[in-house]
Amino acid sequence: MSRLFVIRKSIFAQIVLWAIATAAIITFGLWLLTNATIQRTSRQALERAVDVDLAGMVDIYASGDEQELAERIADRLALQPRDADPAHYLLADAKGRRIAGDMTAWPNLHAGLSQAGEVRIAGNRHAYARATQLSPDLRLLVAHEHRDIGILLRQVALVFLTGGVLAVLAVALGGWMAAHRLAGRIERINAAFRQPDDAALAELARGSAGHDEIDELTSHSGNALARLKQLAAAHRETTDHVAHEIRTPLMHLDNRLVKALAATPDGETAARIADARTEIRGLIRMLESLLDIAASEARRGDRHGLAPVDLSALATRLGELYADSAEESGHRFQLDITPGVVVEGEEMQLTRLVTNLLDNAFKFVPSGGTVSLKLDRGPLLVVSDDGPGIPEDQRESIFEKFGRGGNCFGTEGAGLGLALCRAIAERHHLEITLAPSQRGARFTVSPESKR
């Protein structure tokens, strides 16, 4: 089934199949045309033979008499050629009584009109005949049996069948070779888009000789990917530099506030300094979250750094930690983990994804509420609660940067927690959605849907 799906999906395979079908249809059409031509030609030859034979008999009667015509009919019947259609004759009087010939009864043909048509002769065989009126009291019928062209038609059909099979095989082989070559060239481009590393870009550069449209597309794709990679690298370098330049002064300022807090005996001043430190740490966390989101988005689709991660063990470990916290906060925590669920990913990133979802749930579910973590094969990760939920008008924006649902969704109320979850999920070819639920919020993480 998967093989059939790949064939249906590949445009090159579809082109080959269409070429094979076209070759088969053309061969079949040519056979039908040839078969009809042979039958029509055979029929026309039979009609001409009857007309020529009848004309010769009429000439014999015109130059002689009835007796001579009867003798010539007898001679014709006695000397039937082996390679011609068997001929039959009937010379009859005005009432249809036989005078000469091998046919005993006059068929339903009008002699006065020289009518022609199919007749049945002895042995239930069919023949083509034409009648003519020689005199008021004498009429003549000449009939030739249908030549058996069945053997010829079968031979022609066999020739076309053999030729058609060979033509289809030739088209299939040639089309497969051409499609395989084109598919390989396109695959290099797709591989470079899926994983734009130096090796893939070098492969594009080697394959772009500029001979045809595919080579031109390969060259343009390689250049575009190289430029995008340079821009992404420059963007990451700039953001890292800006983050460092901002984070370092903030950390220094925080250290000064710590010293000021230690040296300040005034309680009101100390409280204000502590509030300032809280805001500074919040800014640092927000900055780190933005950098994490940018890093995850920039590495979307990049397979480097991914390794098999036992998601079941990871979820169980986190579930045990949150179970202890739930007892202290007065929440009920339900854990349903299917063992043996393994995914390709980064363990630290996946840990942040699960902890962000659980933190949001425990943050907004009041004491006495229920939070559940479920993991099934697929993988399918579900974090749900019975809290106040998310208003309908905010359900689409909670995954955006600085998006907020309810009071404050995200990292320390900055609205970055779920945006980071989405970036991490996309990095691992997963998608996170807010599923419909009768009460509370229900977040699901599952493989990306095929579009």
Automatic annotation (TrEMBL):
Alphabetically ordered keywords of this record: Kinase, Membrane, Phosphoprotein, Transferase, Transmembrane, Transmembrane helix
Record-annotated membrane-spanning stretches: 12-33, 156-179
Enzyme class: transferase
Main location: membrane
Enzyme Commission code: 2.7.13.3
Superkingdom field: Bacteria
UniProt GO MF annotations: kinase activity
Keyword Coiled coil carried by entry: no
Catalysed reactions listed for this entry: ATP + protein L-histidine = ADP + protein N-phospho-L-histidine
SMART domains: HATPase_c
Cellular localisation: Membrane
Domain Histidine kinase: residue ranges: 241-451
Protein name in UniProt: histidine kinase
Record organism: Novosphingobium soli
